Amino acid sequence: MSISQILTLTALATGAVAQLKSCSNNGTLSCQSSSKAPTCCYNYPGGALLQTQFWDSDPSTGPSDSWTIHGLWPDNCDGTYQSSCDSSRAYTNISAILKEQNRDDLLSYMDTYWVNNDGSNEEFWEHEWSKHGTCINTIKPSCYNNYTPQEEVGDFFQQVVDLFKNLDTYQALSSAGITPDDSKTYELSDIQSALSKLHGGLEPYVGCEDDSLDQVYYFFNVAGNAIDGQYVPAAPLEKSNCPSSGIKYSPKSSN
């Protein structure tokens, strides 16, 4: 991988600073080590981390000129994944946790860009944390110095938002002349090419529903833990379900 393909995304900490145990060897990338032992510095088995995004047009969610957040998912480096890994940490008070950690700005951002099209935002965040966040082994409570309850929850949501801010799907497509339009259709190769410019030259996964663009997954391998580590773009572990041509990109409907 050339240096231009390596993208380091540093957390833009707006809340508490993570107190994760330091990693002396951050050079070992997840999914690329012969060792299969999970540690607080090596993401395993969920070594591929996916920053996933929605384009919800009807019913619409979020600003008309932005995609919205789906989540951050650990994948077992082969397209399979674990889910709901720790029922004891399946918290149902995400907003209260973030407020307690003085992450009000984060919570406000999530209410705009991490939104549910069928239920409350709180339910969506609880689902994403319980199903995916609890399966990221490098943010378990045991990986913290002087751990305080739910500390990893705020770190998880902050990291997802920071990754999302560096992956402006709407702008990348718009710069390539790919904009929401009821009368136009687009080529899959053009969409993938436009988005690869955000992702170290590697195409993300592009998902469709009824031939309409609706999801994007950016795959990463990580050196170090999932909060302080270096995120390196990786190739997708699944093929797009979109047609090669005739892809619709519908404008968001009026709320």
TrEMBL record:
GO biological process, one term: RNA catabolic process
Xref: InterPro entries: Ribonuclease_T2_eukaryotic (IPR033697), RNase_T2-like (IPR001568), RNase_T2-like_sf (IPR036430), RNase_T2_His_AS_1 (IPR018188), RNase_T2_His_AS_2 (IPR033130)
Annotated signal sequence range: 1-18
Major enzyme class: lyase
Gene3D superfamilies, per the entry: Ribonuclease T2-like
Enzyme active site: H70, E128, H132
GO molecular function terms noted in the UniProt entry: hydrolase activity; ribonuclease T2 activity; RNA binding
Top-level division of the source organism's lineage: Eukaryota
SUPFAM superfamilies: Ribonuclease Rh-like
Keywords of the record: Disulfide bond, Endonuclease, Glycoprotein, Hydrolase, Lyase, Nuclease, Signal
Protein EC: 4.6.1.19
A cellular component annotation (GO) from this entry: extracellular region
Keyword Signal set for record: yes
Entry similarity comment: Belongs to the RNase T2 family.
Protein name: ribonuclease T2
